[in-house]
User: Fold this.
Amino acid sequence: MSGLAAYSEKKGIDQNQVIEDHGPLVKRIAYHLMNRLPPSVQSDDLIQAGMIGLLEAARNYDATQGASFETYAGIRIRGAMLDEIRRTDWTPRSVHRKARMVAEVMRAIENEKGRDARDCEVAEKLELSLDEYHQILKDACGCRMFSFEDITEVGEPFYERMSEHQPGPLEGLQKLDFKKAVSKAIASLPERERLVVAMYYDEELNLREIGQVLGVSESRVCQIHGQAMIRLRSRMNDWFIENK
Assistant:
């Protein structure tokens, strides 16, 4: 905990008291996330990041804003853990490159056809077999299980992330516009992809549990999830271009 000690000393926080009171919250959030992450992610790393998020919450909390400290701290803790996952992304660059390539091809096909791109069409355009294409989807899913949070929580890390300053009117409008764009993109997904997204992010089922509901293998759910994330990235492209 030497990193935590240095951080708390620098910020003038009673580290021991904060951790004693709210440390169990950090562990609860960490183990909840671990159920949805590859085994290469270590719980100790998440807990360490979460403890720093907890100390940041203790320093920045303002009771006049209406939220309880536990609610506020929970957001900061979870955000710190997600940042740690992104920072230590274990995925080879080739996986990210292939996912971007699939998104570009998918977007081109959908613009041309005026409908959802089919697996066989994307694979053919990329000169891949269906098995090779499905492997890219699985890799994309496994490498960034939080890619959807990267999108939907753009209001946190991208615009404010419970920032110390109050967001101005422009920031508020951007965040609202983004959420509307995401909702529209999700609603446009093919039914099965939309269902997997809802069960994974709204109902917080893991891939195995979703597979049991749909009557398919966990591997197939991983493919569907990966394709949904790539399709969302493709359909959100215009928003990112307009709001650079």
Summary: Confidence is low (pLDDT under 50) at residues 1-11, 144-170. The radius of gyration is 20 Å.
